[in-house]
Structure formats: structure tokens, C-alpha cells
Design goal:
Mean pLDDT: 84
Bound molecules: zinc ion
Low-confidence stretches: none
Number of helices: 11
Largest sheet: none
Shape: flat
Radius of gyration: 34 Å
Structural class: mainly alpha
Strand content: under 5%
Order of helices and strands: HHHHHHHHHHH
């Protein structure tokens, strides 16, 4: 053979793509005719190029289908959105015809944004459907509250809006943190972020209620009641999320803490609240039941024993495997 197989192997990709010079092409062809090893290698290269072709075609079909569905859902979104404008137009005409001002029109307009956010937004958004839907739904509910408050008067907007924001954060944040576009950003801090979002919106709600209520010592009461409750929720979250023990042990520790907390919560809260109270006597629910404490600690003890047994024997089983 005139050339080493190594040189031919280097030339083969160029030869396959028809990118080598005439003389190289001749050399490769001559070599392939007399070297079965290189001929076999060339055959395999051609086979893999067929695989590439199939993969490319498959991707094209999937892409085409995705585009087709995207177009269809955008069309459906436009139609649904169009249907939603009907009550808005009717209301506008009736409002103008009866000369009753545009108040009702604005309420209906903002109210229609709620079904729009639930039906049109997911159909129209090509990516981040869940995120866009939940955020637009929350925004439209708060907008409706704002419009109603402006038209009907009253100072309840802050309380209503912050309560709605807190409630929807509790419902939506676990789903939002697991979906695009935030899931990649948060990595392993999804649970922590959802908990932080709920805590922050809770604090905002309590501050808003305080501003509107304008009651003496409101913030002292709010802090006295909220702080122990928030603390217990965070402790349970950290145990369940970050403690590296089995489920039985986590349940035992959690139930134990809840039992102790529920038995003494009233006294803890009462001591904080009463200390801040200056004029009136404060009535705090102080009927702490030792019965709950005993039952709770009993269940926790049983789970603790099961958890320890599972840890001992489960560990042995794993070692055998
Ligand atoms: Zn060869």
C-alpha cells in the first residue's frame, strides 16, 4: 500500500463530504479498494451519517408539529380573547346609553382580565405558560380590587390586595419555583424561595392591615402573635427539607415540636402580647391542653422507634446489597 492507514483515516471525513482535492480523492479510492480495514471504516462512517440524517428529519418533524400547535393555540387564544371583549363592549354601550358614567365599564373591563389571564395567556404564551398565567392572574385580581376600591370608595384596598397577594403566593409559589423561567435560576433553593416569598408577603399583609386598621399597639400584637407562628413553620420546613434522616424520624421530630408548641403557644404568645399591653386587659385563648401534648409526644415516640429501627435494619439491608 502506498499510504499508511492513519493518513487515509484523516482524509476519510473530507472524502465523505466531497471536500478533498482530486489527487487526495484518487489516493483514498485506491487505498479503499485494496484495504478492507479502511473500507469497513468508511462504510461505518456512511452508516452513521444515515443516523444523523434520520435524527435531523425527526427533529424537523417535531419542530414542524410544535410550530403547528403554537399557531393553533395562538389562534384559539385570539378567538377566546375576542369573545371576552363582547361583555366589555355591551357594558360600555349600556353605560353610555344610560348615562350612568363609565364606572361599571371599568369594573367589567378589569374583571374580564381575570378569565383572560386564565384562558388567553396560556394559549398565547409560547414559553413559561405556568409562570405567565399565575403572575397575570394575580396581577388582574389585584387590579380588579383596585378599580372596585377607587369606584366604590373606602380604604380597604391595601388589606384586600395584600391578603390576596399572600394567599395566591401560598398557592402558586410551590408551582412557580418548579417551572421555567425561575427553576433553573433557583437550582436547589426552590423550597427556600417559596417559603421566603410566603413569609415576605405575609409580613407585607400584616403591615398593610396595620396601616389601615390604625389601632393602638397593633404592631406589637401582630409581632407577638406572628413571630412564634412563623418561627415554628420555618423550623418545621428546615427539618423536613434539610435534615438528612428518614421520613419516620422527620415525622417524629415534627410531631414532637408541634405538640410542645401547641401546648405552650398560648402562654408564649400571651407573655409577649401582655408585656406590650399598657392599658386594657388582653384576652388570649389560654386553654392549653396537656392531653394534646401527651398524645402528640406518644405518637412522636412511636415514630421515633420505627425511624431508628428502619435506620438500623434498612442500613444493614443496603450494605448487603
Ligand atoms: Zn487502510
Amino acid at each position: 500500500m502506498k499510504y499508511e492507514c492513519d493518513i487515509i483515516a484523516d482524509l476519510l471525513p473530507l472524502y465523505k463530504d466531497g471536500a478533498c482535492s482530486g489527487s487526495s480523492k484518487q489516493v483514498v479510492e485506491e487505498h479503499l479498494a485494496e484495504c478492507p480495514k479502511c473500507a469497513k471504516m468508511f462504510e461505518m462512517m456512511q452508516d452513521s451519517s444515515i443516523d444523523d440524517e434520520i435524527t435531523r428529519e425527526k427533529d424537523e418533524v417535531i419542530d414542524k408539529q410544535a410550530k403547528f400547535f403554537k399557531r393553533k393555540s395562538a389562534l384559539a387564544g385570539t378567538i377566546v380573547g375576542g369573545i371576552f371583549t363582547i361583555p366589555i363592549l355591551i357594558c360600555l354601550i349600556v353605560d353610555i346609553a344610560t348615562g350612568s358614567g363609565l364606572s361599571w365599564f371599568f369594573i367589567v373591563l378589569s374583571a374580564m382580565l381575570i378569565p383572560t389571564s386564565l384562558f388567553v395567556v396560556p394559549l398565547m404564551s409560547s414559553r413559561n405558560k405556568m409562570f405567565n398565567t399565575m403572575v397575570s392572574f394575580t396581577a388582574s385580581v389585584i387590579l380588579l380590587l383596585g378599580v372596585c376600591c377607587i369606584i366604590n370608595g373606602g380604604n380597604w384596598f391595601l388589606v384586600a390586595a395584600s391578603a390576596v397577594l399572600f394567599g395566591l403566593t401560598v398557592c402558586f409559589s410551590p408551582f412557580i419555583v418548579c417551572r421555567r423561567p425561575v427553576n433553573k435560576l433557583l437550582k436547589n433553593f426552590k423550597g427556600l424561595t417559596a417559603m421566603a416569598a410566603c413569609t415576605i408577603t405575609y409580613i407585607i399583609m400584616m403591615i398593610c392591615i396595620g396601616i389601615v386598621a390604625d389601632a393602638p399597639n397593633y404592631f406589637a400584637y401582630a409581632l407577638g402573635i406572628s413571630a412564634p407562628c412563623l418561627a415554628i413553620i420555618w423550623i418545621l420546613f428546615l427539618i423536613i427539607r434539610y435534615l438528612h434522616v428518614n421520613g419516620f424520624l422527620k415525622a417524629a421530630i415534627s410531631i414532637g415540636i408541634i405538640s410542645i408548641f401547641s401546648a405552650f403557644a398560648n402562654s408564649i404568645i400571651a407573655s409577649i402580647v401582655i408585656r406590650t399591653e399598657t392599658t386594657n386587659g388582653v384576652v388570649v385563648y389560654t386553654d392549653s391542653s396537656m392531653f394534646t401534648l401527651v398524645i402528640g409526644l406518644g405518637i412522636a415516640a412511636v415514630l421515633l422507634v420505627i425511624g431508628i429501627l428502619v435506620k438500623i435494619f434498612g442500613g444493614k439491608k443496603n450494605e448487603e446489597v
